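Design request, tokens follow.
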């Protein structure tokens, strides 16, 4: 199917054609030919200055431009139009008795879209105008669609970012004894990495970090659905097995219609006891950065949430003492191998984190996620093709 055939019915006859020629007979011949071909909105100019004035008043969909005109020639008109962003994509068909290779090179160098020689063949001119107008209308529609799509994606990005904890939410957690920080960056306009944090019963703090299946818009939509299962936090958020069963059951129901699963972890921290209870569901192993300088891996392997309902998941326990920091993250930190020296597994990442902390210092542990993510992007940004989410939770001293 040609570009002309792709246009909606009646679109061609609504196209605005500007004809600039200083000879009345030539103008009349062109107007007659294009009129018989179905074009209804034809504007005429007798010289270059008038052509620019008319174009300013009504941006045309195509310009048929004579080169040899008084006051302002076609070369100047073409150069002037192309310097204006409004006319950058308007097709300009120049017509001239000049037909040397040098003339053609100059025409295209100045921005002409096409060239016909005088005396012109009416059928050839009609065919060229049809093609250029069709391409212009289709590209204009495509640009408008892209602008609308970009606007909608920007709005979706803002909505997706609103799912993440707000500073006031994190301040509440700090009051419970856990300074939580995170850094999030989508690989495209929107993504599917998700993070939630809530106060739980008994002065405890609950965390959830998840990497939703898919990428881009589809992952973002699934993240919205996941958020609906966790916000407001269910009353059983302090019971890790019950919370996991809730996610497995509901996500599995969705997954029967479309493949949805979430690699993630649920964490429950008791500041009073320093007790850390956690449940792994296929997220990358976390780390505990001890106050004394050591780094311990936190195993988070397991079946992703949503693949199997009724699954009995083991709950592990550990200690997060005052001054220790929990570090959780999604795939980007170990799947950026296109960048030279980037970690390719948890072991490599532990070594990189240790070297990075030696380099940037261990101060501000309550902002560890931001500092680690910033350093990682500084080192390996070119290789980061996935959504990036880093979460840190620093155990504060008892008041």
């Amino acid at each position: 199917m040609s570009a002309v055939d792709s246009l909606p019915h009646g679109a061609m006859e609504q196209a605005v054609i500007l004809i600039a020629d200083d000879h009345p007979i030539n103008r009349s011949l062109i107007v007659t030919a294009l009129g018989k071909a179905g074009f209804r909105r034809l504007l005429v100019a007798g010289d270059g200055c008038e052509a620019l004035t008319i174009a300013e008043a009504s941006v045309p969909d195509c310009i048929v431009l004579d080169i040899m005109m008084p006051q302002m020639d076609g070369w100047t008109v073409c150069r002037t139009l192309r310097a204006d962003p409004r006319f950058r994509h308007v097709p300009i068909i120049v017509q001239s008795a000049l037909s040397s290779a040098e003339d053609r090179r100059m025409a295209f160098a100045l921005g002409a879209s096409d060239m016909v020689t005088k005396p012109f063949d009416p059928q050839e001119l009609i065919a060229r105008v049809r093609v250029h107008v069709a391409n212009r209308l289709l590209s204009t529609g495509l640009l408008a669609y892209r602008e609308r799509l970009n606007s909608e994606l920007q709005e979706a990005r803002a909505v997706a970012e609103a799912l993440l904890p707000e500073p006031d939410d994190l301040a509440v957690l700090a009051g419970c004894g856990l300074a939580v920080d995170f850094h999030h960056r989508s690989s495209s306009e929107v993504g599917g990495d998700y993070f939630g944090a809530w106060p739980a019963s008994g002065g405890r703090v609950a965390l959830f970090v998840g990497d939703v299946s898919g990428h881009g818009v589809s992952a973002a939509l699934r993240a919205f659905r996941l958020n609906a299962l966790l916000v407001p936090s269910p009353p059983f958020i302090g019971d890790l097995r019950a919370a996991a069963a809730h996610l497995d059951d509901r996500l599995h129901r969705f997954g029967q219609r479309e493949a949805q699963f979430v690699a993630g972890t649920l964490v429950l921290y008791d500041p009073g006891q320093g007790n850390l209870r956690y449940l792994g569901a296929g997220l990358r192993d976390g780390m505990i950065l001890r106050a004394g300088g050591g780094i311990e891996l936190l195993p988070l392997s397991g079946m992703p949430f949503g693949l199997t309902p009724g699954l009995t998941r083991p709950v592990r326990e550990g200690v997060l003492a005052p001054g220790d920091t929990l570090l959780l993250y999604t795939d980007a930190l170990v799947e950026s191998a296109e960048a030279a020296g980037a970690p390719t597994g948890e072991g490599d990442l532990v070594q990189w984190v240790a070297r990075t902390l030696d380099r940037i210092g261990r101060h501000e542990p309550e902002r560890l996620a931001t500092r680690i993510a910033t350093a990682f992007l500084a080192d390996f940004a070119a290789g980061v093709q996935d959504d990036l989410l880093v979460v840190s939770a620093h155990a504060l001293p008892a008041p």
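Comment from the thread starter after seeing the answer: thanks! The chain is about 40% helix and 20% strand.
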